[in-house]
Design brief:
This protein has 347 residues and is α/β, with parallel strands linked by helices. It has 15 helices and eleven strands. The longest helix is centred in the last third of the chain and has 19 residues.
């Protein structure tokens, strides 16, 4: 049965790519879309920066038609700024606007934005209402269970945000105090989903890093779909692998070294096209470790990849990698990744 976010129709049990600062750019989104992501979002954008016409904030509005359905995510703690930024987003014509009430990092929280808003539900409702009233697009929200263990208010938050007009809610199963530590608690996500007052789709997020876990959480917690973040870094195949497992109960064949190198090439090509040669190559360096994880003695090649400054030189090394590891299948392991200097806000 299809999942609907207003007029957006998603497949049964959709898999969403979480918005991740410094990760979820158009080149990364491309490889995730090609490998099964059903709904994707921009990196989160400061409403204040968008209004000031900050170059980095404006650049994050970029998306391509093939990415649809696509959402642009904003954050902020001022009603007027959020409303105005929603109007700016309207002009770029994405499929939805998403509000970030979940980012736990200090530089966001200290400005009264992201997860800080969990401490003031009235403010959260006012900010959400301001956005809903300022756009013709469906508005969704991404948040956490609460500020800390003593204030897990997600059940109240879900009802009040639905009343304010949001069309879907994604919940990360940790509090702000937890950051990314400990285990995500999905029991409260399930309570929100099973609340008879809740009529909008509820998506769960946190710790989904294997097809088995995706199936277990689907059955155990009853959410409408799941959002995957860090587990997709360097392993965009996770989306199609989860889908295959849900359909068949069997594991899809792991990507070969040739397939891994092919995706690296696609990612690199689009990174250079979008950011320019110098920055495109520089920012691609953070991804090689995860793409090539698990191969014996791969460190030597990774070290070479991060030292080269031309696409041609990188292509030569990738060709060597394909030749050396041809036919070798690395042991299947969980999709935990080597942190990319921990994304400044990764769900």
């Amino acid at each position: 049965m299809a999942v609907k976010i207003a007029n957006i129709i998603l497949p049964d049990f959709p898999l969403l790519l979480a918005p991740m600062e410094d990760v979820s750019d158009p080149p990364f989104r491309y490889v995730c879309k090609q490998n099964g992501a059903d709904l994707m979002y921009s990196e989160f954008i400061s409403s204040e920066g968008l209004i000031r016409d900050a170059i980095k904030s404006r650049q994050k509005l970029d998306f391509v038609e093939y990415e649809r359905p696509f959402g642009i995510q904003i954050f902020g703690g001022d009603e007027d700024a959020m409303a105005m930024s929603a109007k700016i987003i309207d002009t770029t014509n994405p499929d939805l606007v998403d509000i970030n009430f979940g980012c736990p990092v200090k530089k966001v929280v200290s400005k009264g934005a992201g997860a800080a808003v969990l401490k003031d539900v009235d403010l959260m409702v006012r900010l959400t209402t301001a956005v809903v009233k300022s756009t013709n697009l469906p508005v969704t929200v991404k948040t956490r269970l609460g500020w800390d263990d003593q204030s897990k208010n997600i059940e109240e938050v879900a009802e009040r945000l639905q009343d304010a007009g949001i069309k879907a809610l994604s919940i990360h199963g940790r509090t702000r105090a937890q950051l990314y530590k400990g285990e995500a608690d999905w029991t409260l996500i399930a309570k929100v989903k099973n609340n008879p007052r809740i009529q909008i789709p509820i998506f769960g997020n946190g710790d989904i890093d294997t097809p088995e876990k995706a199936l277990e959480y689907k059955n155990k917690y009853g959410v409408d779909g799941i959002m995957i973040g860090r587990a997709a870094i360097g392993y965009p195949w996770i989306f199609n692998e989860i889908k295959y497992f849900l359909q068949t109960g069997e594991h899809a064949t792991a990507p070969t070294i040739e397939q891994r190198v092919d995706v690296i090439r696609q990612h690199l090509k689009r990174s250079v096209e979008w950011k320019g040669t110098v920055l495109g190559i520089l920012e691609m360096r953070r991804h090689y470790t995860n793409y090539l994880k698990g191969y014996p003695n791969i460190k030597e090649f990774r070290n070479q990849l991060v030292q080269k400054n031309s696409v041609e030189e990188i292509e030569e090394i990738l060709q060597q990698v394909s030749s050396v590891y041809a036919g070798m299948q690395v042991q299947k392991q969980s999709y935990t990744h080597t942190p990319i200097a921990e994304p400044s806000c990764a769900y």
